[in-house]
């Protein structure tokens, strides 16, 4: 009799868990859609790298389109009411999701480059882990402990992941110039990406790109002051520092 009661109790508990999950999805349709698009971004990126889904060329652009869909959904969350005025546009362009919508559009018109997918994958992985934890909480605090362990590992490394994303955002700028010379991107690509990077450096929600940018500048400045550095290298570094001086806002 006790075993029957225990089984019945477990069944009710399970129903409540899945019922809570179902209700959470109904109440948060956009968040659920974001979870799905991020999941597909992760799956497609892994499939692109190890080439398990057929034509990697098509998979590459599916990743960019998934990221664009994720960014558009997130942007709708942040700025739900469209207005045709200057204030709305200013608010739009300070949103990180708008930046990455632009990022996807930039590289939809270039040849596939694996480096471009790195920040997309890292952001998708980090936010997917966070959203998955919310879904697991609906099922119960003790459910899926293996998945919770993986999520905790990702969240523990979240600052390093954000710093790595910032580093790749900066590295990709000179890389776009190389793409132009190799015929894999148009002449406009570096200029549009330059504007994207300026948006990232001025981000109000994510200071990591800006912090990494300053660290790189300070490191190059220290190198240029060393007496053992050849004059031509020093001049190149000073030219880069001068060129990038106005890219990021002053640190508070």
Automatic annotation (TrEMBL):
Gene Ontology CC, one term: endoplasmic reticulum
Superkingdom of this protein's organism: Eukaryota
Protein's GO biological process: endoplasmic reticulum tubular network organization; membrane organization
Topology in the lipid bilayer: Multi-pass membrane protein
Entry's family note: Belongs to the PER33/POM33 family.
Keyword check for Transmembrane helix: yes
Native source species: Apis mellifera (Honeybee)
Protein name: Krueppel homolog 2
Keyword Membrane assigned: yes
Localization, UniProt: Membrane
Keywords attached to this entry: Membrane, Transmembrane, Transmembrane helix
Stretches that traverse the bilayer: 32-54, 100-125, 161-181
Alphabetical list of Pfam families matching this protein: TMEM33_Pom33
